[in-house]
Amino acid sequence: MLTSLYIKNYALIDELNVQFNNGLTIITGETGAGKSILLGGLSLVLGKRADLSQVKDKDEKCIIEASFDIANYNLKPLFLELDLDYDVQTIIRREILPSGKSRAFINDTPTTLDALSDLSSHLIDIHSQHQTQQLVENDYQFRVIDALAGHKENLELYSKKLSDYKALQKALQTLKDSKAELIKEYDYNLFLVNELNESKLESINLEDLEAQYEQLNNVEVIGEKLANAKGILSLEDQGVVDQLNTVKQELNKISGFGKAYEVMAERIASVHIELDDLLLELDDLEEALSTDPQELERINSQLQIINNLFQKHSVSRIEDLISIKNELSSKVSDTEGLDEAIKEKEIELSNVEQTLNKLAAQISKKRQSVVPILIQKLESLLSDLGMPNAKFKIDLAEVDRFLPNGKDSLQFLFMANKGSSYNELKKSASGGELSRIMLAIKSILSEYIQLPSIMFDEIDTGVSGEISNRMGDIMKQMSGRMQVFAITHLPQIAAKGNSHFKVYKTDNNDITETNLKRLTEEERIVEIAQMLGGADITESAMAHAKQLLN
Q1: What is the distance between the terminal CA atoms of the chain, rounded to a whole angstrom?
Q2: Alpha-carbon distance 410 to 544, whole Å?
Q3: What would the 3-class secondary structure string for 70-110 be?
Q4: I want to staple 239 with a disulfide (CB 3.0 to 4.6 A). Which of 230, 235, 397, 502 is the partner?
């Protein structure tokens, strides 16, 4: 419930601070006194966009602050979703700075207008002619029926399953699209994989393979050079080995004459031994050297295949070819496995579809069961509100697709007078009739769900007498379950309030200001007497006012 409202420097309001109670609160005042200004300030708290033209003193900050007791509203999840600090005494504040910039705060935490609108829609409902038009909207009509049906959990589960269903549909279509795309490439990818597999890349050492090719391809040159090298080393009397042997003998003769000669003789002996080993290894290399044209052709062919693969795939390493092969193998495997994945997704989608159909059937059955109750309550209330011949016909029909709230289509038909035919609300109900229908619906809803505080803005326009008295009774009954405000011009309704506020203007130093004050019991009598008989209050009007209040 709205517990307090503070307005400073807004339109004709200099500063206003008022406390509200539960029950039915009446707001009255002469035409032009500023009731619309009060609503305008409250609308800013509810998330309406602001501009500098609404500020009274352009050099000062404009502030509108409203306090709400939200203990009974179960709004903790919404506060968590909006990343706000929860408090049962929640304060919403709007500020319009001299620069024209607007700021919003919820429990002193800066917030966005979207977040403010989301929250405030759960706190207060300003019922105006514009809002009455919601009655003709299909979504609102469904919300009314669903409130009576009391299947909120089923609707929430349906909504979640519908979200899952749409996600599965999207995933399935993606798989099918992928399959169509991959099938186009499948044959080529499979050819490439087979080509790479045939090359047995994992068993190839390219460096060794190239070395083998060079040896086999140059076997004659290698044999000739090995023979020449051996000749230079081992030629009798003139070969390096024989020459070195002579050097060794000469040094051995003087090795006993000093350490330096001894060391030199040992080094020459080591070189002589190393040359002997080299000769043996050259012999081995020469013996191992053989001509193998077939092996040369095989290696040449393998190298050619690898080089062709390098060029085809724009790489230069065996490791890169292996990575490409693995990637292509994965694509081929994915293509071959898509049918199974699609089948699994179709089964999953079918299961969710069955659950949705079951939930939709339960929702529809519950709706069908409450339609007669809603019609009976509406027609009964409207009869009391001066529409004794008002009749409703509410048709629910199953559709063949999943809608956001089930599988029902809804027709909310109305007949105002005997002898006429049923038609859509927007075509068959006048503005005054829509207002009374909306009042009746709000009254019925308040029996089933916790509604936010509601402010009826001159819902009594165009009615009088006993009808207005019944309107007041309905609002009074509603106020036993929720906080109700009524801005009214009718004394019959004003007398029903638990508390009564008056909007009035004053002129101070040639400046007009709007004020709001809570009336005492005596002031209420005077105010209602004026509403009955005008500014000149008669004893009869005073007596009538007292009678209404009592």
Answers
A1: 26
A2: 47
A3: CCCCCCHHHHHHCCCCCCCEEEEEEEECCCCCEEEEECCEE
A4: 235
Token pair for residue 497? 């309030």
SS3 420: coil
DSSP classification of residue 55: B
239 vs 158: CA distance, rounded Å: 101
- The residue with greater pLDDT, 476 or 130, is 476
Choose among 205, 198, 207, 213: nearest CA to 309: 198
The lowest-confidence range among 68-72, 236-240, 265-269, 362-366 is 236-240
Q: φ and ψ at 230, to 5 degrees?
A: -65, -40
Q: How many CA atoms lie within 13 A of 292 on its CB side?
A: 13
Q: Is the pLDDT of residue 497 over 90?
A: yes
pLDDT at 483: 94
Distance CA 108, CA 67 (A): 12
Distance of alpha carbon 228 from the chain centroid: 84
pTM recorded for the entire structure: 0.68
SS (H, E, C) 287-309: HHCCCCHHHHHHHHHHHHHHHHH
Burial 519-536 (b: 16+ CB within 10 A, else e): beeeebbbbbbbbbbeee
DSSP 111-174: E-HHHHHHHHTTTEEEE-HHHHGGGGSHHHHHHHHHHHHT-HHHHHHHHHHHHHHHHHHHHHHH
Q: Specify which residues 60 forms β-bridges with.
A: none
* Cβ-proximal residues to 287 (8 Å cutoff; 6+ apart), any chain: none
| pLDDT band (50, 70, 90) for residue 186 | low
3-state secondary structure 421-451: CCEEHHHHCCHHHHHHHHHHHHHHHHHHCCC
DSSP 3: E
Give counts: helices (H), strands (E), the chain.
18, 15
Please give the distance of CA 296 from its chain centroid, rounded to a whole number.
67
In which residue are the tokens 């005596």 written? 522
Tokens of 46: 């509810």
Enter the DSSP assignment of 452: P
* 202 alpha carbon, distance to own chain's centre: 49
Residue 458 has pLDDT above 90, yes or no: no
CA dist 522 and 500 (Å) reads 11
